[in-house]
Sequence to fold (209 residues):
Amino acid sequence: MYREWKPLRSGLMALATCFFVVWLAAPMVGRGMAQAPTVVAPGNSFSVGEQIDANLAAAQAPLLAQGMPSRPIVTYVAMLNGQNIVPSAAMTDARGVVGAALAGNRLVVRASFRELTSAPRDYATDPLDPPNPNITSAFHVHQGGPRENGPFQYALEVTLNDIGRGGSATGDYTLTPDQLQALQNGMLYVDLHTARYRGGELRGMLMPA
Fold:
């Protein structure tokens, strides 16, 4: 009788151990997933890698649609976060990803962002002093290094999601020779200003992808 029961008992113990290991690991897996960095585009959730690929593909699409450009397409990426804000970091969980494609002197930009602390800054009701009519949104391209605030270059067109704390942005620009040189030298950055962080909540340098 003991010999008949022993294999059954061993099997039950192994099964119980397996369930315990799965139960013990489950909270760790959950925590790991919660900490994985993600960027949310309108209506969708992507990993950072997927969002970079999506934004780069979207940036290249208009160039490819017009036929193969006479010059190769060069791609750039900017990872946006509050730690990059100058002179003081923004205390925010917001994140953003920018993908850009350059053909000749034409730069196409596609961006996505999430979890802003407040709505984007409205320059119609909260303008610069003196106002700048070219600043038509809170999402900008600037010329400058990583630790300096450089002059405004272009505004992106922003589309917010239903919550108003995330969304996407687009831009299509003809760069001047000075701007083209700045881009190639790692001296163009993108930032996003909000009502809470008027000087910028997200920022990142455009770097070769």
In short: The chain has three helices and twelve strands. Helices lie at 2-35, 48-65, 177-184.
